[in-house]
Automatic annotation (TrEMBL):
<comment type="similarity">
    <text>Belongs to the CSTPP1 family.</text>
</comment>
<comment type="function">
    <text>Regulator of the tubulin polyglutamylase complex (TPGC) that controls cytoskeletal organization, nuclear shape, and cilium disassembly by balancing microtubule and actin assembly. Regulates the assembly and stability of the TPGC and thereby modulates polyglutamylation of the microtubule, which antagonizes MAP4 binding.</text>
</comment>
<protein>
    <recommendedName>
        <fullName>Centriolar satellite-associated tubulin polyglutamylase complex regulator 1</fullName>
    </recommendedName>
</protein>
<dbReference type="InterPro" id="IPR038968">
    <property type="entry name" value="CSTPP1"/>
</dbReference>
<dbReference type="GO" id="GO:0005874">
    <property type="term" value="C:microtubule"/>
</dbReference>
<keyword id="KW-0493">Microtubule</keyword>
<keyword id="KW-0206">Cytoskeleton</keyword>
<keyword id="KW-0963">Cytoplasm</keyword>
<dbReference type="GO" id="GO:0034451">
    <property type="term" value="C:centriolar satellite"/>
</dbReference>
<keyword id="KW-0597">Phosphoprotein</keyword>
Amino acid sequence: PVFSPTARHHVITYLEDAVSQLLEHKEENPRVNPAKFLSDYFTSVHRGNHTLFREYEYIKATPHNRTAFIRIFWKCFRQVGKSGDLLNAKEYQSLLCLLCPDFPLELVQKTARIVLMDDAMDCLMSFTDFLFAFQLQFYYDGHFVHGAEIYTNIMSATRGSRDAVVVPSVSRTKGKPPQLSDGPDSVESTQFFEAVKMLCETFQFSHPPVDILRGILMSAPRVSFYGFLMALAKHEGINSAVGK
């Protein structure tokens, strides 16, 4: 689909929020200068420090907001990574809530599951592992919701078949292909890729680059959903793709 520049850059979202913020501030300070307030607001948006202490609905509202929040989280707490401290999911949520008071535990739990491949919420994670998984889950959350539905549908459709079709993995020049999964909850990688590729072609919002998806899913015959997400989180290209 082709979107107008206004839609792509979410100008209406920022205009509506700017006016709402202005009206709220005028109630507290009737002498506020509207022109200066709006100028400061959009300068803050441009610099990427506009999501600090804002509500979750706002920080997730646009790709730019999500990118800005990820960067703020990293800047504020990178010392945790440097010191080598290990934290559990609830402790990471506490850090996130210092920047966004209503940041949901559910998204932190999804992030932890990428790192841990389990629901063990009391397990400890390094800051680096959490950050890479968090930026992936937070930035592309809407896409992964649909991806999870696709995965579940494929698994349900093939679960009754005892004779799974094994697709040969693509050979790589360096090292062995990643073991995405060959367990009972896995699906054929090629089938999942074709479905996800179609989703990317129709999805209106942010999604991981198709080339990265292809490289991961064509490297192993079968994949579990969280094995797929873990491979994405560890992919060097995702770090540069977030925000584009």
